[in-house]
């Protein structure tokens, strides 16, 4: 028998006992399924530019991809009005993202879209008083200076040169990159050559490993 501690939303701790780990796994799966169904469904970036031959060289987005996009939507595109300010703060704080194994590029492109949606792009105003010569009257003028958001860097890597090519096409087809987004593709294994550059700088890391059968 195993004792399982479950922390409830109200902070209380409930202890349950099960004969094996199967019950625990099933319960976790049910919880994950309920949470997934309650999340907003992500709108997958357009892949209309791809052909059947492209899908012979990269994996076509499937259920795991859609689940990951839904998770990104839940984290960064929640329409709950009580979290809008927090979403803007989170979006502005994210300046560097990294996706390992980009494939078609939909994950990073979608992330770029929703971060751009929730980033604050307010204008700053400055006021100055002008006093006419020979009078005591002053006239206040307000000048609006549009703020320029800092560049947001999206790094994508793949060991497959076709994946890099297709990701760039997906970005162009979905109007990314455009200011303030900058897309940097790298043909490599995992993210090895980027480690010195991105050490302690990655705000969001995306990695959806493919299911590749091996002899072992």
Describe this structure in words.
This protein is an alpha/beta fold and 216 residues long. Helix content is 33%, strand content 25%. It has 6 helices and 8 strands. It has helices at residues 21-38, 63-76, 84-93, 106-118, 161-173, 195-198; strands at residues 2-7, 13-18, 96-100, 123-131, 138-146, 152-158, 181-187, 204-207. Strands 7-6-3-8 form a 4-stranded parallel sheet, with helices on one face. The protein has a two-stranded antiparallel sheet with strand order 1-2. Helix 5 (161-173) links the parallel strand 6 (152-158) and strand 7. Helix 2 (63-76) runs parallel beside helix 4. The longest helix has 18 residues, at 21-38. Residues 1-9, 13-18, 122-136 and 138-146 have low confidence and may be disordered.
